[in-house]
Write a structure and sequence with these properties.
Largest sheet: 3 strands, antiparallel
Strand order of the largest sheet: 3-2-7
Helix content: 40-55%
Number of strands: 10
Order of helices and strands: HHHHEHHEEEEEEHHEHEHHEHH
Number of domains: 3
Length: 379
């Protein structure tokens, strides 16, 4: 076993032995930047909030259908997808909460509160805050799952993990493993807010060749402020007085560069293009079209999350059924290219018009493949 494997195993074993209170206390410790990182503090960082919002919105707003076996036509939505939980009666809200749990904690937990059908399949899954779930191993090696301190039967729980690791029930938490990067971002934002809010650095300095005592200095300052506050009038100075504006030193302005770097760092953690979060576009991406960037976002950032959620929802369905998102809605910007591709497929004979309607998430039309195409349209 390598040193890396031993290090990860020790952290995993120690974490499983921690109680919920000890775990929360451990994560509230300051990072090297002096800022503790929790779910709440991480979400106050605009880049983390933006990445979570982008990925959760992208997944939760896509149509989710259920198919039986290899059938191409979806079946009516089961009760689970009509009203997934009491707290989230809308499927889109339920999926958003699932994604937020995965992106922040690496785990989504749900308590099965209702079952239906002959097989007593889950009909309602109430989501649980990941911090309220603790997974431990007792003396005989049996894993015990507790919710709010009470042991729960695993058959009554639904668990979906994002960042898996061998020998570990729970997924790796991005908030925990990227705490230093997020702590640096929080510290940089606080520094910028204090820098511009505290007015600790004066806007300028009044000097004179003559000796000035404290009373004269206060009087000169008061007269300057009274004459020029909120005004851009011409300043008149006498008695050898001079006004020198104070500029920001280069080392004090570096927090702007630090924020830009932090945006790219957090985007790498979540696999989101930095330009989607207002960061800088690097390399050849600067010359790509919005359509290509949208396709790249779907392919490299969103698609893995669609696959994870599809697998998790499919486990709640009968073994002969599967859930699948229709991701075509994410590339509506390439509408003309898609329609041209459909036309080529129909003309070549390997794509039916009924299949095109399914790909475009449109209701089926009986006998459309046997109908003559409109004038000027290929068959």
């Amino acid at each position: 076993m390598s040193w890396w494997d031993r290090w990860v195993w020790d952290r995993t074993r120690d974490r499983e032995a921690l109680t919920l209170e000890q775990l929360l206390l451990d994560e509230s410790r300051p990072t090297a930047a002096g800022e503790p990182v929790t779910v709440e503090s991480a979400l106050r960082l605009s880049t983390v909030w933006g990445c979570v919002r982008l990925l959760a919105d992208s997944v939760s707003t896509l149509p989710l259908h259920v198919y039986r076996g290899d059938d191409r036509d979806p079946i009516p939505a089961p009760p689970l997808l009509q009203r997934p939980s009491a707290d989230f009666p809308e499927l889109a809200d339920w999926l958003w909460a699932v994604m937020a749990s995965l992106l922040l904690r690496g785990n989504a937990w749900g308590l099965i509160t209702d079952r239906s059908g002959a097989g007593l399949l889950p009909a309602q899954v109430d989501l649980i805050h990941p911090d309220r779930v603790a997974v431990t191993t007792n003396g005989d090696g049996r894993r015990v799952i507790r919710v709010n301190g009470e042991e729960v039967n695993p058959t009554d729980l639904w668990h979906l993990k994002a960042f898996t690791w061998p020998g570990q029930v729970e997924g790796l938490s991005p908030i925990r493993y990227a705490a230093e990067a997020m702590g640096l971002g929080i510290a940089a934002e606080k520094y910028g807010a204090k820098f511009f809010g505290d007015a600790a650095i004066p806007s300028g300095v009044l000097t004179s060749d003559q000796r000035i005592g404290q009373p004269e200095a206060d009087q000169l300052k008061a007269r300057w402020k009274q004459a020029h506050k909120n005004k851009r009038d011409i300043a008149v100075l006498g008695s050898g007085a001079r006004f020198a504006p104070v500029s920001i030193a280069p080392n004090e302005a570096q927090f702007v560069e630090a924020q830009k770097f932090n945006v790219s760092t957090i985007c790498r953690i979540y696999g989101v293009p930095p330009e989607a979060m207002g960061g800088e576009t690097a390399g050849h991406e600067a010359y790509s079209s919005p359509e290509m960037r949208s396709t790249d976002l779907l392919l490299w950032s969103v698609r893995p999350w669609l696959y994870r959620v599809e697998r998790g929802v499919s486990r709640l369905l009968p073994s002969t059924q599967r859930a699948r998102f229709n991701a075509g809605g994410m590339v509506r910007a390439t509408l003309l290219d898609r329609y041209r591709a459909h036309e080529l497929g129909i003309k070549a004979g390997w794509l039916l018009r009924s299949e095109v309607r399914e790909l475009e998430d449109r209701p089926p039309i009986a006998g459309i493949d046997d109908q003559d195409p409109p004038t000027g349209v290929v068959a």
